[in-house]
Design brief:
Helices cover about 40% and strands about 30% of the residues. The chain is of the alpha+beta class. The chain has a single domain, classed as YaeB-like fold (2-Layer Sandwich). Strands 1-5-4-3-2 form a five-stranded mixed β-sheet.
Protein backbone atom coordinates (compact mmCIF):
# COMPACT_ATOMS: atom_id res chain seq x y z
CA UNK A 1 0.00 0.00 0.00
CA UNK A 2 1.15 3.51 -0.76
CA UNK A 3 1.55 5.96 2.10
CA UNK A 4 0.25 9.51 1.54
CA UNK A 5 1.77 12.51 3.31
CA UNK A 6 0.59 16.13 3.11
CA UNK A 7 2.85 19.16 3.34
CA UNK A 8 1.77 21.99 5.66
CA UNK A 9 1.05 24.10 2.58
CA UNK A 10 -1.19 21.39 1.08
CA UNK A 11 -3.15 21.15 4.34
CA UNK A 12 -3.67 24.92 4.37
CA UNK A 13 -4.75 24.76 0.72
CA UNK A 14 -7.36 22.15 1.63
CA UNK A 15 -8.69 24.19 4.53
CA UNK A 16 -9.44 27.11 2.17
CA UNK A 17 -11.78 24.99 0.03
CA UNK A 18 -15.46 24.31 0.64
CA UNK A 19 -16.37 21.07 2.39
CA UNK A 20 -17.78 19.29 -0.73
CA UNK A 21 -14.64 20.09 -2.71
CA UNK A 22 -12.44 18.95 0.18
CA UNK A 23 -14.35 15.68 0.30
CA UNK A 24 -13.99 15.09 -3.46
CA UNK A 25 -10.28 15.84 -3.37
CA UNK A 26 -9.54 13.67 -0.34
CA UNK A 27 -11.57 10.78 -1.75
CA UNK A 28 -9.80 11.00 -5.12
CA UNK A 29 -6.39 11.20 -3.48
CA UNK A 30 -7.07 8.06 -1.45
CA UNK A 31 -8.60 6.12 -4.34
CA UNK A 32 -6.16 7.17 -7.07
CA UNK A 33 -2.88 8.07 -5.45
CA UNK A 34 -3.32 5.46 -2.73
CA UNK A 35 -3.59 2.66 -5.26
CA UNK A 36 -1.61 3.54 -8.39
CA UNK A 37 -0.31 7.12 -8.56
CA UNK A 38 1.66 6.67 -11.78
CA UNK A 39 -1.42 5.60 -13.74
CA UNK A 40 -3.72 8.36 -12.50
CA UNK A 41 -1.27 11.28 -12.75
CA UNK A 42 1.06 12.87 -15.26
CA UNK A 43 4.61 14.16 -15.02
CA UNK A 44 5.10 17.88 -15.11
CA UNK A 45 7.37 19.31 -17.79
CA UNK A 46 10.59 21.27 -18.09
CA UNK A 47 12.23 22.03 -14.75
CA UNK A 48 9.46 20.21 -12.86
CA UNK A 49 10.03 16.69 -14.20
CA UNK A 50 10.43 15.19 -10.72
CA UNK A 51 6.89 16.26 -9.83
CA UNK A 52 3.53 14.83 -10.85
CA UNK A 53 0.01 16.24 -11.08
CA UNK A 54 -3.38 14.68 -10.40
CA UNK A 55 -6.48 16.28 -11.95
CA UNK A 56 -9.65 16.43 -9.88
CA UNK A 57 -12.29 18.46 -11.70
CA UNK A 58 -10.80 21.96 -11.95
CA UNK A 59 -8.29 21.37 -9.16
CA UNK A 60 -4.76 20.06 -9.39
CA UNK A 61 -2.75 18.17 -6.79
CA UNK A 62 1.02 18.48 -7.21
CA UNK A 63 3.11 15.78 -5.57
CA UNK A 64 6.27 13.75 -5.81
CA UNK A 65 7.10 10.19 -4.87
CA UNK A 66 9.77 8.66 -2.69
CA UNK A 67 9.68 4.87 -2.95
CA UNK A 68 6.20 3.86 -1.71
CA UNK A 69 5.29 7.32 -0.37
CA UNK A 70 3.35 10.10 -2.11
CA UNK A 71 4.15 13.56 -0.74
CA UNK A 72 1.50 16.12 -1.65
CA UNK A 73 2.95 19.61 -2.00
CA UNK A 74 0.18 21.88 -3.28
CA UNK A 75 -3.55 21.80 -3.98
CA UNK A 76 -5.08 24.61 -6.01
CA UNK A 77 -7.34 25.58 -8.89
CA UNK A 78 -5.96 24.83 -12.33
CA UNK A 79 -5.59 28.53 -13.15
CA UNK A 80 -3.26 29.13 -10.21
CA UNK A 81 -1.39 25.91 -9.53
CA UNK A 82 1.41 26.03 -12.09
CA UNK A 83 2.48 29.58 -11.19
CA UNK A 84 2.45 28.61 -7.52
CA UNK A 85 4.56 25.52 -8.21
CA UNK A 86 7.15 27.58 -10.05
CA UNK A 87 7.25 30.19 -7.26
CA UNK A 88 7.43 27.68 -4.41
CA UNK A 89 10.05 25.49 -6.08
CA UNK A 90 12.08 28.34 -7.54
CA UNK A 91 11.77 27.13 -11.13
CA UNK A 92 11.68 29.59 -14.02
Amino acid sequence: MIKILYSDIALKDLEKLSFPIQTDILHSIEMKLGTNPLVFSKSLKYGLKDFRCLRINSYRIVFFMEKETVIILLIDHRKEIYDRVKRKLGVK
